[in-house]
């Protein structure tokens, strides 16, 4: 058995053990694609999977806006409330950090392995949700920047 298959099988089992359907499903799909010799789909996922995942994430967040039962005045009031303003700031900072993480991954792509392992640890032991490597890369970039400040 190939090392990649063993690693995917281990991830599948960890997903089941941690009750993480996202991890288990992802590992299962990749394992099926590998065992079915559908490597072209794995290559597509490698090139465009992050974009596709972000599109679906954005769609799920924007669905309430598609419903006609929203009262836009209430939406505006909620956005301008103290919590809404903090959400605006949080969104702006998160997207900035994700951009910095993307730059870091382009400069140092081997860091992705540590981020994947860290994400698995977060899923299994901390009950986290795997939303992709960009936030992990953004946090890593922030941690590295803080370390560089103290050097």
From TrEMBL:
InterPro entries: UPF0756_TM
Major site of localization recorded for this protein: membrane
Localization per record: Cell membrane
Top-level taxon of the source organism: Bacteria
Membrane topology: Multi-pass membrane protein
Key words of the record: Cell membrane, Membrane, Transmembrane, Transmembrane helix
Transmembrane annotation, as ranges: 6-33, 54-73, 111-128
Short name of any one Pfam family annotated for the protein: DUF441
GO cellular component, as recorded: plasma membrane
Family of the protein in this entry: Belongs to the UPF0756 family.
Cited HAMAP family: UPF0756
Protein name: UPF0756 membrane protein SAMN02745133_02258
Organism: Desulforamulus putei DSM 12395
């Amino acid at each position: 058995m190939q090392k990649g298959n063993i690693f995917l099988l281990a991830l599948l089992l960890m997903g089941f053990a941690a009750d993480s359907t996202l991890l288990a499903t992802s590992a299962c799909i990749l394992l099926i694609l590998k065992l079915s010799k559908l490597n072209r789909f794995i290559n597509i996922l490698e090139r465009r999977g992050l974009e596709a995942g972000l599109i679906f994430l954005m769609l799920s967040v924007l669905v309430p806006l598609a419903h006609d039962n929203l009262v836009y005045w209430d939406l505006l009031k909620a956005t301008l409330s103290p919590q809404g303003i903090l959400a605006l700031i949080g969104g702006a900072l998160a997207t900035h950090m994700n951009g910095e993480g993307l730059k870091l991954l382009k400069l140092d792509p081997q860091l992705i392995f540590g981020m994947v392992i860290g994400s698995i640890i977060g899923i299994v032991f901390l009950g986290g949700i795997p939303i992709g490597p960009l936030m992990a890369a953004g946090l890593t970039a922030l941690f590295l920047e803080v370390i560089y400040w103290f050097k």
